């Protein structure tokens, strides 16, 4: 689990699974850009899986990112995440 360390970003939580290629790619891109995340494996945390299903119309779609303001994005691009962080 990665703890937020950047003073330029608010906390971002990424709900993911270990086998998700989209999750791995986005996590790598965020790390390269210095955007810290807290990662939650929905396969190990049933309440996290329920949350993701609630955000995504009953589907366990990952990556689902939740921002400090409570908004969520499903499978966003790096550009979308960066744009959202500049709004906060």
What is the percent of helical residues?
25-40%
Oligomer: single chain
The biggest sheet, with number of strands, parallel, antiparallel or mixed sense and barrel status, is: 4 strands, mixed
| Poorly predicted residue ranges | 1-9
Mean pLDDT across all amino acids? 90
- Count of individual beta strands: 4
Summed up, the domain count is 1
Brief account:
This protein has 88 residues and is an alpha+beta fold. It has helices spanning 21-32, 46-55, 78-87, and strands at residues 12-16, 38-41, 64-67, 72-74.
What does this structure look like?
Residues 12-67 form the Glutaredoxin domain. There is one protein chain. The chain is of the alpha+beta class. It has a single domain (12-79), classed as Glutaredoxin (3-Layer(aba) Sandwich), CATH 3.40.30.10. Helices cover 36% and strands 18% of the residues. The chain contains 3 helices and 4 strands, in the order E-H-E-H-E-E-H. It has helices spanning 21-32, 46-55, 78-87, and strands at residues 12-16, 38-41, 64-67, 72-74. Helix 1 (21-32) links the parallel strand 1 (12-16) and strand 2 (38-41).
Main traits of this protein?
88 residues, alpha+beta, Glutaredoxin, four-stranded mixed sheet, 3 helices, 36% helix, globular, disordered N terminus
């Amino acid at each position: 689990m990665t703890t937020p360390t950047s003073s330029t970003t608010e906390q971002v939580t990424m709900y993911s699974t270990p086998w998700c290629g989209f999750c791995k790619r986005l996590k790598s891109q965020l790390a390269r850009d210095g955007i810290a995340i807290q990662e939650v494996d929905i396969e190990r945390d049933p309440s996290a899986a329920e949350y993701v299903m609630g955000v995504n119309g009953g589907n366990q779609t990952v990556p689902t990112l939740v921002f400090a303001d409570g908004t969520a994005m499903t499978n966003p691009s790096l550009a979308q995440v960066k744009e959202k962080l500049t709004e906060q």
